[in-house]
């Protein structure tokens, strides 16, 4: 999806107010915890972007009615986190129910991580025990050549093999369900096709393309710890409210709205 930057800017502005409110509500609910959790944002750990601690989501007041034992400072009860349609993550905030799109959320997190990594030492890569061989079209091979250094810095070490085939020695490892060959094929097809062509900055364009293709997809079932970590990382992102396409990462169903619909207000 290519959106002209000017149009995107207008869309951002139109949505800004509503989503700013959502973002602030979620930050209020999760801020103390997000700040406290040692997320190691930047994902430099050897385990890749999913590595790190699970994030405790503060719950509403219910558990205070049944205190079992005093909580040690800095720890909070884990609020339920529910995945629906293998695509959306739901949890309670102070003011309603937050709904996170898992692809958009991970795309935002990866985009910021990759921008930092490209400005620094690059991403940790995994050497493949069995190097992959992947076939490309001539325009795609040109795109690989033109982006070889950026591909290497996000973790793909690629060499020409024979004819239209390349051999891949190392790959990134952004999450446990990552399919290195599929991501590379999609990424290179996008680079050859000029996806995100409206973005002026080459580094940002590459990072957005990579983030979109490397992120967890809609329709992938996640473990509870993966959900917690993804939500925690999203809420510590610099611009958590949108993915690289300008779509929202979080939508909130306000408690007031529930009360209104059930005739409670
Ligand atoms: Zn995307």
What is the spatial order of strands in the main beta sheet?
A: 1-2-3-7
Strand content: 15-25%
**SSE string, helices as H and strands as E:** HEEEHEHHEEHHHEH
Number of helical segments? 8
Give the helix proportion (percent range): 40-55%
The fourth-level CATH homologous superfamily of the largest domain is: MutL, C-terminal domain, dimerisation subdomain
Instruction: Estimate the mean pLDDT confidence.
Output: 79
What does this protein look like?
With 265 residues, this protein is of the alpha+beta class. The chain has two domains: 5-116 and 222-261, MutL, C-terminal domain, dimerisation subdomain (formyl-coa transferase, domain 3, 2-Layer Sandwich), CATH 3.30.1540.20; 125-172 and 178-214, Ribosomal Protein S8, Chain: A, domain 1 (2-Layer Sandwich). The protein contains eight helices and seven strands, in the order H-E-E-E-H-E-H-H-E-E-H-H-H-E-H. The strands form two sheets. Strands 1-2-3-7 form a four-stranded antiparallel β-sheet. The protein has a three-stranded antiparallel β-sheet with strand order 4-6-5. Helix 2 (102-119) packs across helix 7 (224-235). It is elongated. The chain binds zinc ion. Zinc ion is lined by residues 107, 212, 243, 245.
